[in-house]
Every structure is written in structure tokens, then in C-alpha cells.
Task: inverse folding
């Protein structure tokens, strides 16, 4: 009884929808059904529906805390890449502007005179030290629990 | 001869425009033919829309600011100083430090200043969320109120067809306040009254500055038990009696008064004598297409400082900045401006604490309201927490 009622209601709905009275809508739906038929018959459309459901679940589960972590990752990544590409582009342009590159001794003197250059070297040194520390941790022999 | 381009203002408009100018004019900069300078009076860059969230305890100060210099490309000279005088006729800036700078092209992006002192009693008895400290003060009040009446009002500039700061913000905060008080469990004991002035840009006696959105607001407010009232233009406040008095002759009592305050241009812009705006508001006469300061081909104006009928918000700067960069490049390379601003503004409105509604409009087409969604809310929060800084860097 319930099935009959719902079938009737669906029929009524299909007959009453203004969009379905338009020939272009019906033609478009027919095209779409033709495209969908093989993946529907092969049960592959199910995967797309599952994917949509999974995306919807992620949206439902996302809260303030999760969003803040994701955006912090975004900002750290983009900000870091931006800073590095800026430095690379700017430094390359400066180097290209000199018709003759400085001699090794001139470069050493520049390091000695330029506080920012020395700080940059310090940053690189700190990065190497941190990489070394992490490598040492990974290489440590760990006792069994 | 090196061409000097100076951007004044370290807000979102100035920051993204300085970065965009370097991108646009990179060949000239590399050849040493162009120099870009940004002048700001603060070493910090603040994400100002987040002040609204501070009022709801959702943002800490260090989460909404960055070092100004860290947001600028290395090709930009950053000057920490304040402009005391715009000498547009001489193409010169006089600085507080005593220095002066000559420019070939100038971008004025100096923002606006909330000025509650321009309404009698408002500074003493009113609250707002357009600056950090007032927003913190408002948070203390709305996070402790147990019962009473919160009265919300909006003040428009006197200049015809110029909006207040961030047109959607009063509506956003009203909906956020409703949800905030529900979460606290005190909503039944706190009455929220949303009011709008009789004259709101081109509309009259409405609840919003655009008619179509104004027409859907009553049903939104009714569904949440928010009282709404048209035709309340705040004239003065009696701090002793806690009464807001309107130009229309009404008196309304309040326990908390959240009022979008009067705004004005910064002192140096006011003192330039170029503005024709009434009430010493200081908006600069701006060509609505090229964004040039009227009468000065080499000066461009953007953001809150313009006298255009466009939201004083970052979403406006985002669309004005490429036009200004294109036009400066056009003047330098071809001797004429090449781009026109169509008035486009886009934003994602915060509709309550969780939902959001993307919106856009321009000179010709108003916002078409759509249902608020959780995805819209996530987009807004994602923008607040990360994408904004990419916009400032000129990446988005």
C-alpha cells in the first residue's frame, strides 16, 4: 500500500514538475541517462555516490579545531614557499646584475660586512644542526618495551 | 630616471597592491627603472575583519596580525613612518619624521577611522567591534550578560551614497550574537533589537543598504526571535539613563549598545583639503572607473578612502588593486590608463557562528541572497585562518 502510494506520488511529481514539461530538459536527461547507463549497469556509479557521501561526511565532521589545523598547515606551506621563492628570485636578480661575479675573497669579505648575510648563514647552520639532531634520533638503538 | 611608486597604507589594500605592483612591473624593476615603496605607520599588519570574531572570543591578537614586512616582496622598500601631509600638486609626501618623498605615482590606501566621539555620548556608553580593544571590551560584556536588552544600530556617513565600514557586518554580528547567547543559555533572558537608519545609501526605511537583502531579513530575524526596527538614526546617547535617542525622535533603552560608529578618513587626508565630503569625513573624490584621484592623473585611491558607493571592505580592495596596477603600468608603458573598475565586491558573510553565505555585487547588480550553508561557513573560516594572508601577499 505504502509502495503504491509513493509510486503514485512520484508519478504525480514527474507530471507536475514544470522543468520536465520542457522538451530541452527531457532531451538533456535522455542524453545524461545514455551516458550514465553503462556505469550504472556496471555498478560503477555507486563509487561516485560513495565518494560524494564520503565528502559530505568530511564536511559534517569538520569543526573549528580541525579547520584551524588545516589552515595552519596551508599558511605554513604557502608562507614558507613564498619566502623561499622570493629569496631565490631576489638573490638571482642581484647576482645577475653584476657583470662580473665577485671573487671568492670579495664574497668572504661581503659575508663579514653584511649582517643579514651572516644571519642567513646562521639560519642554514641551524637547519643543518636540526636535521642532524633528527637523524641522530632516528638512528638511535631503541630498547624493547 | 627611476620612477618612484609610493603606496601609502599597510592595510589589505596597500599591502596587496604593493605586492601586485612588483609582479606587474617586474621587468622595469629588474632593469632598475622602477622602485616601489610602501609606507605604513604600524610595524604590524592586522586582519581587521577578525576584530568581529574577537568580540565573540574566537580570535586572539597574535592570530590576526603579522609583521608588515613579512608580507611584502623583497623588492619593496618598507618605510615605517606616518604621512603628515599629502602635497598632491607637488607629487610630494611630508612625513612625521621630517623626511619627504617625491613620487611619480601614488596609491592612497589609508583606510578610515571609527569615530564614536562624533555622536554625543556614544564613546562613553556604546560598543563596537571595528578595532581590537573595543571588540575585547564588547566580548567582556556579551560573555557575562545574564539578562537585559542589547540594542544594535548602524551609523552611515553623511556623504550621500557612501556606505559605512563593511556593509554586512551589523547583520553578521546580530546573527552571531543570537547564537552566542543561545550557547550560553541566556538567550531567553536577553532581548536583541536590530535597528537601521532611515537613510541607508540609496534605500530608505529598510533593514539593509540593498533592497533585495533588506526584504529577506525580517523573516530571518523573526525565525530567531530578533526584534527589528526601521527608521532609527542615532542622534545621541544618554550614558546615565542608558538611552539611545534617534533623529526621528524615538528613545530606546539598552543594557549593551552595539553601534556601528561614524567613520572618517585619516588626518593627513582630511588636511589635504582635496575632499569635498560633508561633515569633514574626508573621502577623496575618486573616478569610479579608473580609480584616479579627480584632477590628479598620477594619484590612485582605493579601499575605505574613496567616495564611491562601494563597501568599505577588503573585498573591494581585492578587485580595485588589479585595476590600479594595470592603470599605473598603462600610464608608464603606453601613456594612458587601460583598465576600469566595475564596482565588484565579493565576500563570504558569516551567518551565525557556523554558517556562511558567499556573496558578490557590483555597481549595477546588487547581492542576490542565497541560503546560508555549513560549507559557506567553512569557506569563511578557512579564509580567516589562512587564505587571507595569501591575498595580502598578492597570491590569490
Result:
Amino acid at each position: 500500500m505504502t509502495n503504491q502510494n509513493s509510486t503514485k506520488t512520484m508519478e504525480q511529481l514527474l507530471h507536475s514538475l514544470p522543468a520536465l514539461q520542457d522538451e530541452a530538459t527531457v532531451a538533456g536527461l535522455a542524453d545524461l541517462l545514455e551516458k550514465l547507463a553503462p556505469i550504472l549497469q556496471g555498478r560503477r556509479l555507486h563509487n561516485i555516490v560513495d565518494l560524494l557521501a564520503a565528502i559530505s561526511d568530511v564536511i559534517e565532521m569538520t569543526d573549528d579545531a580541525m579547520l584551524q589545523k588545516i589552515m595552519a598547515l596551508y599558511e605554513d606551506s604557502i608562507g614558507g614557499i613564498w619566502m623561499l621563492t622570493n629569496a631565490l628570485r631576489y638573490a638571482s636578480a642581484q647576482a645577475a646584475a653584476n657583470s662580473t661575479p665577485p671573487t671568492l675573497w670579495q664574497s668572504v669579505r661581503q659575508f663579514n660586512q653584511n649582517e643579514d648575510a651572516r644571519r642567513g648563514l646562521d639560519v642554514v647552520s641551524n637547519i643543518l644542526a636540526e636535521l642532524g639532531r633528527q637523524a641522530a634520533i632516528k638512528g638511535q638503538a631503541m630498547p624493547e618495551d | 630616471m627611476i620612477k618612484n611608486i609610493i603606496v601609502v597604507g599597510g592595510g589589505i589594500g596597500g599591502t596587496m597592491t604593493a605586492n601586485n605592483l612588483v609582479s606587474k612591473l617586474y621587468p622595469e624593476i629588474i632593469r632598475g627603472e622602477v622602485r616601489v615603496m610602501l609606507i605604513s605607520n604600524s610595524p604590524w599588519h592586522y586582519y581587521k575583519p577578525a576584530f568581529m570574531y574577537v568580540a565573540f572570543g574566537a580570535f586572539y591578537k597574535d592570530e590576526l596580525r603579522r609583521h608588515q614586512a613579512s608580507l611584502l616582496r623583497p623588492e619593496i622598500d618598507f618605510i615605517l613612518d606616518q604621512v603628515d601631509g599629502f602635497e598632491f600638486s607637488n607629487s610630494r609626501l611630508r612625513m612625521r619624521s621630517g623626511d619627504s618623498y617625491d613620487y611619480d605615482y601614488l596609491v592612497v590606501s589609508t583606510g578610515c577611522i571609527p569615530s564614536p566621539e562624533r555622536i554625543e555620548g556614544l564613546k562613553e556608553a556604546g560598543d563596537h567591534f571595528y578595532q581590537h580593544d573595543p571588540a575585547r571590551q564588547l566580548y567582556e560584556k556579551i560573555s557575562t550578560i545574564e539578562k537585559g536588552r542589547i540594542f544594535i544600530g548602524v551609523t552611515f556617513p553623511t556623504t550621500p551614497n557612501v556606505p559605512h565600514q563593511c556593509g554586512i557586518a551589523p547583520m553578521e554580528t546580530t546573527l552571531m550574537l543570537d547564537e552566542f547567547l543561545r550557547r550560553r543559555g541566556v538567550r531567553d533572558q536577553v532581548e536583541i533589537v536590530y535597528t537601521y537608519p532611515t537613510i541607508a545609501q540609496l534605500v530608505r526605511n529598510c533593514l539593509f543598504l540593498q533592497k533585495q537583502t533588506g526584504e529577506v531579513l525580517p523573516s530571518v530575524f523573526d525565525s530567531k526571535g530578533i526584534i527589528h526596527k526601521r527608521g532609527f538614526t542615532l542622534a545621541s546617547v544618554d550614558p546615565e539613563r542608558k538611552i539611545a535617542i534617534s533623529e526621528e525622535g524615538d528613545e530606546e533603552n539598552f543594557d549593551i549598545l552595539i553601534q556601528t560608529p561614524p567613520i572618517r578618513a585619516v588626518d593627513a587626508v582630511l588636511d589635504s583639503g582635496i575632499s569635498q565630503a560633508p561633515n569633514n569625513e574626508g573621502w577623496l573624490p575618486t573616478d569610479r572607473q579608473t580609480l584616479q584621484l579627480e584632477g590628479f592623473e598620477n594619484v590612485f585611491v582605493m579601499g575605505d578612502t574613496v567616495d564611491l558607493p562601494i563597501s568599505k571592505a577588503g573585498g573591494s580592495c581585492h578587485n580595485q588593486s588589479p585595476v590600479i596596477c594595470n592603470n599605473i603600468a598603462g600610464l608608464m608603458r603606453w601613456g594612458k590608463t587601460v583598465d576600469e573598475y566595475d564596482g565588484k565586491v565579493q565576500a563570504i558573510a558569516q551567518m551565525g557562528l557556523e554558517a556562511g553565505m558567499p556573496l558578490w555585487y557590483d555597481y549595477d547588480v546588487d547581492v542576490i541572497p542565497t541560503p546560508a550553508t555549513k560549507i559557506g561557513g567553512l569557506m569563511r573560516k578557512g579564509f580567516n585562518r589562512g587564505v587571507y594572508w595569501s591575498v595580502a601577499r598578492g597570491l590569490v
Observations:
- The CA atoms of residues 16 and 392 of chain B lie 5 Å apart.
- Chain B has ten helices and 25 strands.
- The interface with chain A takes residues 30, 32, 73-75, 374-375, 378, 381-382, 385-387, 389-390, 393, 395 of chain B (CB under 8 Å).
